[in-house]
Fold this protein.
Amino acid sequence: MSSAAPSVPEWLQQRLKRCDGAVPFATYMEWALHDPEHGAYGSGRLSLGPKGDFATSPSLGPDFAALLAPQIAAWLEPLPGPLSLVETGPGEGTLALQLARELAAGWPDLAQRCELVLVEPNPGMAERQRSLLDDAPLPVRWCSFGELAQAPVRGVVLAHEVLDALAVERITSDGERWCRQLVRLDASADAPPRLLLEPGEPLSPDLLALLEPLQLAEPGPQRPSGFTTELHNGMAPWLEQAGAALEQGWLLVIDYALEAWRYYAPSRSDGTLMAYRQQRAYGDPLLDPGQCDLTAHLCIEQLEIAARTTGWEPIGQCRQGEALLALGLAQRLHGLQEGATPAQLPQLLARREALLRLVDPHALGDFRWLAFSRGDPRAAPGLPAFLSPPP
Ligand SMILES: C[S@@+](CC[C@H](N)C(=O)[O-])C[C@H]1O[C@@H](n2cnc3c(N)ncnc32)[C@H](O)[C@@H]1O
């Protein structure tokens, strides 16, 4: 057993008691993030941006969307008929709005054929997106993947920092086998209730099947008793739903991600799970349930395997720093001071700072951009611009 949270909210105590005191970690994470009343996203409590709980690339300013827009336009332009730019997990709606503005200003003919579709399961977040996108220059609608699957669209699906917010199973080695980690309520009589992490039953065959292609079905001597990590078992169902919604086009996933050898490295003995709140990061996922963001990195190979089995073709992947340089970030940085007046200096310095943060190899620059296609949308062979050498 490990880790005790300082206090357990009443709603969570009641839920856990109804489940005989313990649930798989994935259930706890689903509640803590997505419960419509108590979850950090479900309630709309979390806020994104430099003044919110954590910053994301688009929240640093419009440059990220300006650099990404030519890639989106290059993917959309050869496709026939009405087009959709689908953003899943749009957070505050900032990236969707910025991309709509870029497309409308830089590709007006394309924009005439294009709508924005926002896929956001959390009502609290969708409410905020609606007020931000009130005067977006493209038609906007909100719907679920299930609704889109009734009339699949053509275009681009964007998943920026959303797969890391899907609930994960935490798994822990008992020295010989992987076990599912549980979150247990410890409500012994004379101490305040607290949450504990503890090993549960050995992994079921469907969860083990995710580890088999990585030759990790057994933890082996390098991952001794107590070694703990994560399994993104929600990824394949998510890709299946996204695929059913898209008749032809592209998927761009931008997220924290690691190769399997790094993800499951013997030295990473407590996984990748982090909690974020008010610009601070915490390693304890039991801290303030429902008040913090919880995120787990993606495993690149697991994502690619899940993509192939759900009808997506992996196109390639690289780090965000490389992608943005290929899309012209250095030229944008150099162009900042051209024609600038002294009065504009503070604003230019802030933009320069934001551009540098986007490619910082110790932070956002280390994010991965992973491209997938379905329905053979490629008009011409060749890599997407972000996977090509910088100009
Ligand atoms: C970290 S925020 C990403 C925000 C935005 N993409 C950005 O970069 O600024 C995660 C978002 O994903 C949403 N989300 C969580 N689970 C989701 C799911 N299964 N499908 C779609 N969106 C989801 C959350 O409600 C939230 O809006």
About this structure: The chain has a mean pLDDT of 93. Residues 41, 48, 56, 58-59, 88-91, 94-95, 119-122, 125, 160-162, 165-166 surround S-adenosylmethionine (CB under 6 Å).
